[in-house]
Amino acid sequence: MFDGEFTRVTNSLGPELAKTFVVLWDIGPHKPSPPKRPDTPKGKPGQPEFDLAMIEFREQLDAYEDALKAYGRAKTEYAEWQKREGGAIERTMYSCDAHDALARDAANAPMLDVLDQEGNTVLDEQTGEPKQAARLRYFISASTRGHERLKNHGLPEGVKPGRGQAENIRRQREGEDEFLRARAADPVFGQEMTR
Description:
This protein is of the alpha+beta class and 195 residues long. The chain is 41% helix and 11% strand.
């Protein structure tokens, strides 16, 4: 230390800990679409080609049954999310957990058809097939330090905060107001005690 230099030493890790937080938008699970039932093969029983097609059809039916079960679970999860949150909410995480959430989201994101403003499927100009894009669940929020200038507060275009986010903000403000009332009522709040 240099002569005359003033340093303040504190053992409070709160401010340092706050620097490691990352706020992510969680827009919830995507709305699932039902699986397509496999087509029944055409032909007559007893013909080798038809019998082979029936074996493949039964295997496809098993896969379809599994897909239906997954669809039912996803439909329930989506309905519960919409009932509870009603849209996107902010989640505060440590930076390492946020990094993991973003990486896993990118690796496991389902590919969904791209829709235009009217809800119609957009077709690829070269192939004529539906355009697809990964449907991510997590996005960095503008509430995260260093990301304050993100458009739409970090949400994707067309996505708005849900009821759950408004409720979280209301509870946060109530907590801050309660803290200010407690601070005003305590005459020695924030003053160092001397012995």
